[in-house]
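Quick one, probably user error.
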């Protein structure tokens, strides 16, 4: 079996897909985990087949010496669908 044939035979059906990746920033007064959940929940309202969320950066807004908002910058991937 050739090297190319081995690679092609090892690919599953799910490997033959295209995904789009977008950047989002979620925020929450509760914490960073909730900020990520806010970003994913909001994206799920208009996108379908969400796959992976990758947290890139965490920061927080401070007012009067206290954290008032947690922010999470994320990359979110979803399956790309062509128009049939």
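Nope, works fine. Designed sequence:
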């Amino acid at each position: 079996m050739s090297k190319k044939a081995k690679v092609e035979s090892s690919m599953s059906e799910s490997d033959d897909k295209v995904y789009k990746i977008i950047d989002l920033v979620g925020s929450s007064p509760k914490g960073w985990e909730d900020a990520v959940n806010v970003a994913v929940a909001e994206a799920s309202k208009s996108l379908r087949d969400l796959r992976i969320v990758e947290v890139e950066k965490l920061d927080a807004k401070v007012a009067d010496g206290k954290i008032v908002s947690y922010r999470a910058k994320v990359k979110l991937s979803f399956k790309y669908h062509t128009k049939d």
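Residues 1-13 have pLDDT under 50 and may be disordered.
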